[in-house]
Amino acid sequence: MSNQSSHAKRVFIAGHKGMVGSAIARQLLEAGNCELVTRTRAELDLSSQAAVAEFFAEEKIDQVYLAAAKVGGIHANNTYPADFIYENLMMECNIIHQAYKSGVKQLLFLGSSCIYPKLAEQPMVETALLDGHLEPTNEPYAVAKIAGIKLCESYNRQYGVDYRSVMPTNLYGENDNFHPENSHVIPAMMRRFHEAKLNDAANVVVWGSGTPMREFLYVDDMAAASVHVMNLSKDVYDKQTDPMMSHINVGTGVDCTIRELAETMQRVVGFDGELAFDATKPDGTPRKLMDVSRLKDLGWQYSLSLEHGLEKTYQWFLSSQAELRL
Predict the structure, then answer these.
(1) Phi/psi of residue 154, each to 5°?
(2) Is 305 known to sit in a ligand binding site?
(3) Is 65 one of the annotated active-site residues of the chain?
(4) Predicted TM-score of the model (pTM)
């Protein structure tokens, strides 16, 4: 995949088939001022040090978006903790180190809000990192993501490169995973409402009391934020960050209850039945909200409301069902 011009930057998107990576690819292709370099998993094993070294030596990359990751929900994190920590650490180490070795000056690492302590004050500020215990169910994944942040900071300090990190809130949108067991709350709920609509079900049962609060960001907004942060001048970026705490939260700064999410989803899908909440099921953390004041000070904020984002996601879901992991 490429979008060529004579003096365009060569930009490698690691993980271009995933939800975030594909959104970044769409964003960059629309701008039309770079040449995208991509590889599928079959073409390049990012966990192989030798393969990644050969790739960077041959391709002469100018910028890297590190969106590749092994991801999953609570069930997957609990079942495969070794896979999650090993594969994510290996991909990050190989890409960041070989980017430096081949002369790449600019890299953006995409992390996760799970890097913050389980009991972090709300909204979560960047300085909360390493200030308490992590959520046990996804600790191996979170540790790998924290390592990615610290790799970027360490290579900046030792080698003078400009490697940045962004930490997204809960994402959803085109190319999400709608698998019934391994998906996150929005795709899982969207599929449930859609199937209930098709089957003329009397109600849809939502786990928990409906009172926990969560923040959601449409993936195209995440892509726009990533490109914005990547392209900020170093002076501007450095003024809003610290060499020892350089990551930036990306979110809306707005949350809603799970009940409000379910009611919005019901409207978007067009389900006419009732909502039922199963309070015997766990609620999880009462609230997870990102403090996005640092990102706002850098000149970016989200554009799509939750309802508008869900409408776009549902239209994509309807047009793509044959190809989805359903």
Answers:
(1) -70, -40
(2) no
(3) no
(4) 0.93
